[in-house]
Design goal:
This protein is of the alpha/beta class. 31% of the residues lie in helices and 20% in strands. It has 8 helices and 11 strands. The strands form 2 sheets. The protein has a 6-stranded mixed β-sheet. Helix 2 links the parallel strand 2 and strand 3. Helix 7 runs antiparallel to helix 8. The relative contact order is 0.18. The structure holds zinc ion. The site of zinc ion has 7 residues, from loops.
């Protein structure tokens, strides 16, 4: 089976729709694994949740989802993120709120080789895994060979060369394939709705279970459509402009 891997959609429907379209048409995926942060920053939380929920999928909760639900203190967020979260709270439909409230992690789909957590296996809600030192410690906090993470919005692969051994970091570009083998891996597909690696294209990945390969992908989407909706809602300017820089 082929599975689409998406993270940090952040209520950006224009980006999510393009990614879903590519996963359906180009990659023929039948299932989605979502690494959390469906809401926050963006203008269409309900539409994004409706689209996700229309798929065969699994999803874990992110820090913004927890912020919306009051499961983490809103003071943990910066001022811009708080504005977007407070607006989200005012529009989120009760059924979508209940859906988010029921999410749990870590998730090990079908008792297979992957664990899924939003931020890190050590702290599933808040820890940013950005360097090999942090990654090295995180490898002892999950039992499966591979762990999927999001949260940093940067496509990344941390490879532990052998059990307990050296950890290496790679930042895969579009079209790059990762072959799943004996090395343990922490894998981040990047962000659909607010990329932060200097490339504004929506980021996602595709797992081919038969071939044992994860392919990283990027997609152009109509950024101006999302920005126009954010302007109408008087969202903070920084949240609007960062989308076109991918930062
Ligand atoms: Zn996020």
């Amino acid at each position: 089976m082929r599975i689409g891997i998406v993270s940090d959609i952040h209520a950006n429907l224009a980006a999510f729709e393009v990614v879903i379209g590519a996963l359906r048409r180009v990659s023929a995926t039948e299932r989605l694994w979502c690494i959390g942060d469906m809401v926050g920053y963006g203008p269409q939380p309900n539409e994004c949740l409706d689209l996700l929920r229309s798929f065969d999928h699994v999803c874990v909760p992110g820090n913004h989802d927890y912020g919306l639900l009051g499961k983490t203190d809103i003071e943990n967020f910066n001022a811009d993120a708080r504005v977007a979260l407070e607006w989200t709270e005012s529009v989120i439909r009760p059924d979508n709120r209940a859906y988010l409230d029921a999410l749990d992690q870590p998730w090990v789909p079908d008792n297979g080789p992957f664990s899924i957590v939003h931020a890190s296996p050590r702290d599933p809600i808040w820890e940013y895994v950005v360097n090999v030192e942090e990654a090295r410690e995180c490898f002892s906090y999950f039992e499966t060979p591979y762990c999927l993470i999001g949260h940093t919005h940067v496509p990344s692969v941390f490879r532990q060369v052998k059990q307990g051994g050296e950890v290496k970091l790679a930042q895969p570009s579009a079209g790059e394939q990762l072959r799943l083998g004996d090395d343990r891996l922490l894998i981040n597909p990047g962000s659909v709705g607010q990329p932060r690696d200097g490339n504004p294209q929506a980021a996602y990945a595709v797992l081919d279970q038969e071939l044992g390969i994860i392919e990283f992908q990027r997609a152009d989407y109509p950024i101006a459509e999302t920005q126009a909706l954010m302007r109408d809602l008087r969202f903070p300017k920084r949240l609007i402009t960062r989308l076109e820089y991918g930062f």
